[in-house]
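User: Structure please.
Assistant: Input sequence and predicted structure:
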Amino acid sequence: MLIDAHQHFWLLKDRAGQWPPPSLAAIYRDFLPDDLLPLMQQAGVTGTVLVQTMETAGDTDFMLALADKHSFIKGVVGWLDMKAPDASEQIIRRAAHPTFKGVRPMLQDIADVSWIVDPALDPAVTALIDHRLVFDALVLPRHLPHLLAFATRHTGLPIVIDHGAKPLIAIGHYNNWRKDMAALAALPHVYCKLSGLLTERGDQKPEAVRPYAETIIDLFGAERVMFGSDWPVLRLAGDYQAWLDFSRSIVPAAHHDAVFGGNAVRFYSLSDR
């Protein structure tokens, strides 16, 4: 299967006062399965992982309801407050849904960059591990040392770094990002998504993302990288088919089955869908 391991749906009516702003005209509207399906069919994509975009239980409910109706949604990564007193109970309840595969706190928007290393998260992490769920890390480069501490502490929790940690491609900051990513890649339970890079390039040509994408492949290896479109956010910087084709040009052909499907199936336990 060709799996898109990172995409989103949303309704503007649910996002009053939240991102995206009207100025981002390319994504300032509703996005639902009927909008993505033609792009998937053209590209030969057979399944997706639907990822949260709001810090609400309602957003997770919305995604799970879509998954109930659309079999191409193979997994859902939702949100919950991992420091809530009842976080473990929430995880147990969510885990009963066959499409619920993991959680994603929006670390990039949390003012405290060390939020992730708070021991208050431990009960939620234990519940995730016990129910074979995963952790999506929505981080920026400044969060990577803290994510390393978290990942080192919780070696039983599968972790995937979304969008390569959003490297500062637009201004060419590479060395420190690579060093921090290499430390995380040394941990066998940490994966990385080949996604979201085009929107970090600023005014540079798309080819500017190639060194970063190649570094992700080199550091994490073919067995711990998974392709994602980050659609519809991708619309701000590129085209669905073009990003898939570009990613295929970076990944050696011998590893296409793993990076463009197999790794996502294994990491998110998608085989039951």
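The chain has one domain: 3-268.
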